[in-house]
Amino acid sequence: MASTPLADPAVATEDELVKETSTLTVQDTAEAQLPPHRNHDPQHNMKRSDPFQFGSRYLQEEDDVFEFNAWDHVETDDTYKEYAEQQFEKQRQSPVSDFDKHRFNSDPAKWWNLFYKNNTANFFKNRKWLQQEFPILDKITQEDAGPVTLLEVGAGAGNTAFPILAHNKNPKLKVHACDYSKEAVKVMRNHEAYDINFMQADVWDAAGEDLPPGLEDGSVDVVLMIFIFSALSPTQWEQAVKNIYRVLKPGGEVCLRDYGRGDLAQVRFKKGRYLEENFYIRGDGTRVYFFDRDELAHIWTGAVPAKDNADGDEKNADADADAGEPSPSSSRFDIEELGVDRRLLINRAKRLKMYRCWIQGRFRKK
């Protein structure tokens, strides 16, 4: 069935654009897919128990796509792909000016400060799905979990940290919630649930030279990165990964969720928002990048995609490892899970089809 052309509202933040849809579908060839089923059977419409394998609503040929407001495991159709490519080409032809490129890239914290000045803490919904998406968060908040240090990078207004603390039963859990916006940190520190016994909110640039306040090398058990890696410039990825590597304990875990290539938010961008391929400026001045799975695997583990796997890259990775300098090109993290969450959201009133694409992963420090 052909896609209806999309409307052209201003590009919104993730929490505005989607009302926290929680069904995760992972398209990973390493995992067997569940067989399709009839979607009218109530037993198949329950929330999934394994976020990396279970998706309950498959779109089959005989289904009416407008019968439900969301479908799992849905690849984009040919009409949408053609429309998206047309949009991308228009974006490339009307990039951000050199002046604006410097203005937005030179001080990204400035734009996030303005963002939080213009929006209250209630702008975001609490991310209640976190424990289901990342089971480690449920484990470390149990009463008998023992001493655990959790670092959230890009904590924003605390819509991730505060729900975690609200469900916490572990008296020895400490959450370090960091953001490079001082206004965001202000919002967290003024929140009624802010308790210095369990939470410390600080300004920190994830791509800077220093570690977060109060944390040392090898002091963190879990790092949480929810829609934050995409806010960094590609030139900042290497330093950010080095910092995460430094602060984690051996065997420590990174939990990441971010934007996937071809997501509706990317397709909607119009003239004057294109910084470089897959990297954009929103209307509020904040930046966003859209990843694919192989790209993230390379950034975090040094795994080179087949088409780019050259001897030179492997030698560079070996040299970095020998020098003891963790970087995206050195294999310092193992992939625990890495999948693409594809959903088809339906506006049944307007009969619009909206393709969303996120990437979710867990990486473990060797």
From TrEMBL:
Record-annotated Methyltransferase type domain positions: 151-253
Q: What does this protein do?
A: S-adenosyl-L-methionine-dependent methyltransferase.
GO molecular function list: tRNA (cytidine-3-)-methyltransferase activity
Origin organism of this chain?
Diatrype stigma
Family, as annotated: Belongs to the methyltransferase superfamily. METL family.
- Using the UniProt annotation, give all residue ranges assigned to the region (Disordered): 29-51, 308-333
Keywords, alphabetical: Methyltransferase, Transferase
Name of the protein described by the UniProt record: tRNA N(3)-methylcytidine methyltransferase
